Amino acid sequence: MKASLAELEAIAAVARHGGFRAAARELGMSSSALSHAVAALEERLSLRIFNRTTRSVTLSEAGERFVADIAPALAVIDQAIENAGMASSSVSGTLRLNMAAGAARMLLVPLILEYGRRYPSVDIEIVTDNALVDVIGKGFDAGIRLVEAVPTDMVAIPIVPTLRSLVVGSPAYFGSRPRPLVPGDLLKHRCIRARMASGRLYRWEFERHGQAALIDAPGSLTLDASDLMLSAALDGAGLAYISEASIADHLAAGNLISVLEDWSPPYPGLSLYFAQRRQMPARLRALIDLIREQNASR
């Protein structure tokens, strides 16, 4: 009749998230395994804790009492674990992060290497992947993505509040061509097209004074990596639509010329994201604290 701590944590997670999928992500297990574990406990206790339908999972009346009874004990255990972690003088282990290659280039020096200097006992592993992956299922502590790509059931911590992409070309490219003044002018230019991780071609997005424009940029060169697009633009192969942060030095040096800046407003930037959990690894907590410190200093 006894329930293990893991089973009680599973019950609390399902109750907290209102479903098995998000709870399973927090606990690092499959939804089916979690559902079976909860059902087995209910059978052993002869108690229906959750009412299940095809659309929802809710606590039964008895389940509400059960969760209310175990919550204080779990909170005490959580506090004991947190106190034990605080008593340790070092943050250690392996911090595994997943992000797109462009984000890795942007954040390597100011965030990742700074973290390494502060916590030399932590091994850092960065895996770059342009496609969105299941960070929990793949064994990562967290991921870093554009805000719009962060799964809705994840906790998000802003790192770079806003970003901006610009249309750029080399002085040689513009030597014999007029600069576009409105997005529609791009249809008369040679553009370097972008292939997304999903396989679709990216349509260049613009907006000014509430007026939006999507341009299917014409061109004979299609690439799937921003560093390749930058190299091609620097060589005069055409216009590229690239993150301003990655080309700032080239703009300042005059190697690239930006156009349509008034049609290129900022958009929500990068966030660290991770599954909500009752016991956060100290290595991840240290990264979150560093991000918040850097945000406060901006």
Compact summary:
With 298 residues, the chain is an alpha/beta fold. The chain is 40% helix and 24% strand. α2 (20-27) packs across α3 (31-45).
Task: Fill in the keyword field for this structure.
alpha/beta, 9 helices, 3-stranded antiparallel sheet, single chain
Tell me the structural class: alpha/beta
Order of helices and strands, N to C?
Answer: HHHEEHEHEEEEHEEEEHEHEEH
Provide the residue-averaged pLDDT: 91
Number of strands: 14
Shape: elongated
Strand order in space, largest sheet: 4-3-5-14-6
User: What helical percentage do the residues reach?
Assistant: 40-55%
The rounded Rg comes to: 25 Å
Termini separation (Å)?
Answer: 55 Å
Instruction: Report the uncertain regions.
Output: none
Sheet having the most strands: 5 strands, mixed
Strand content: 15-25%
Oligomeric grouping of the chains: single chain
Number of DSSP helices?
9
